Amino acid sequence: MKKENLEVLLEDISSKFDLVLESHAALDRKIDNRFDELNEKIEHNSFMIGALNKKIDAVDERLSKKMDAVSADLSAHRADTEAHHGVYIG
Prior knowledge:
This protein is mostly helical. It has one helix at 3-83.
């Protein structure tokens, strides 16, 4: 093979190798962008889940208080009913 032919071949290989490197860099940037988008979505979803957990905790607390009040009312009613045992004739 002549020197000129070898130089042309090496230049062609070099340009193709540069193209592969540029494509690799572009793909790397694209992957990084998708990774950043995914991280943003995960952070947003984590925030939303945290807010939902706070709402659920608040509802649980309100229901617990209402259940305690109903239980106290029921206990008072039962005590009153038992105190008047025999008064009511059916």
